[in-house]
Amino acid sequence: MRAVVPAVALLLAAPTAGQALESATEPAPAPYTGLDLVTGGDYAPYTGEELPGGGLVTDLARRAFAVSGRHYDVRFMPWKRGYDGVVAGRFLATFPYVRTPEREQEVLFSDPVIEVRQFVYMSNRTAMTFDGRLVRGPRGLEGFRGRTVCQAVGYALPPELEALVGQGQLARQTPSDLGACVRMVATGRADALVIDEYSAAAAIARSGLADDIRVSDHPYAVVTFHLVIGRATPGAETTLAAFNDGLKALKAQGVYRELLSGHTVPPPP
After folding, report:
1. Residue 37: which residues within 8 A CB-CB, separation 6 or more?
2. H or E element, residue 139
3. Count of beta carbons in the 10 Å neighbourhood of residue 138
4. How far is CA 237 from the centre of its chain?
5. How many Cα atoms occupy the beta-carbon half-sphere of 99 within 13 Å?
6. CA nearest 90: which of 232, 269, 242?
7. pLDDT of amino acid 12
8. DSSP bridge pairs for 37
9. How far apart (Å, rounded) are the C-alpha atoms in residues 79 and 76?
10. Are strands 37-39 and 74-76 parallel, antiparallel or unpaired?
11. First-to-last C-alpha distance (Å) of the chain
């Protein structure tokens, strides 16, 4: 097993990124919808009220909308409350979310905001093993059968593991936040946690329990994060198109790569 990824040191976005946006001529602001963007906390480096710019994806979401003259407030709240509010039309959009079949029935997904690798983080108190090279093969999930996985409220299990839970072959613990999941794995109350490497690094560093957790040598999967809007929200498709266009513009201007670097997430090759 390889060592746990070192803690992510969050930094402000490079000044040149802000200067590039400020110097660009913005169109007239679109009428305010009365709806806010919402996201959760405890998900460094992507979102968090205490993080610079609210976290990487919060920063990207604000800037992508601003390109088309749309300026929204961002509210931080429990993940489930925020997501349910978006589905019901009480809030405009939320982020960052992985695409799942269940969510696709309720929300529309933006273009990918960022691509990340998920790893399996296991307790040193368990004999569980996982070989990421086999995850798509017939024996890939054998290590999970008969085990307990931790999934914080508002997070999603990979579809294959969700199916194992439904079949009664995998138990699930659902604490209120990611930090609680890390503690449960470290103390052996859960065998494993499946999550991306950057949020895991931050959460494990905050817990001070790195010596009690090991990480798989190979990724479980590569997934993309998205902004989502409720399917029943008026103007959802137009709003999503504005966000996607803004995200493309940030990439074309080089701002996107600078923001990734500023929040210490390596830019794509």
Report:
1. 61, 62, 72, 73, 74, 75, 91, 92, 93, 94, 95
2. none
3. 7
4. 22
5. 15
6. 232
7. 30
8. 74, 93
9. 9
10. parallel
11. 26
Cα–Cα dist 142/265, whole Å: 32
* Single-letter code of the amino acid located at 260: L
**Alpha carbons 205 and 203: distance in angstroms, whole number:** 5
**Of 267, 265, 207, 268, nearest in space to 11 by CA:** 265
d(CA 18, CA 109): 26
Rounded to 5°, angle at Cα 5 from 198 and 95: 10
Residue 263: predicted pLDDT? 87
Cα 63 from chain centre? 18
Domains, the chain: 15-113+225-262 (3.40.190.10), 115-222 (3.40.190.10)
The conformation of residue 44, written as its DSSP 8-state character, comes to T
Smallest Cα–Cα separation from 146: which of 125, 167, 132? 167
Only one residue has tokens 């709806």, namely: 35
220: helix, strand or coil: coil
Residues 206, 183: Cα–Cα separation, whole Å? 10
Residue-level pLDDT at 7: 37
pLDDT for 131: 79
What is the per-residue pLDDT across 104-146, written as a single tens digit (0 to 9) for each? 999 999 999 999 999 999 999 999 988 776 555 546 788 999 9
Q: Which two tokens stand for residue 177?
A: 């936040």
Q: Which residues in the chain land under pLDDT 70?
A: 1-34, 133-139, 266-269
Q: Encoding tokens for residue 37?
A: 């963007």
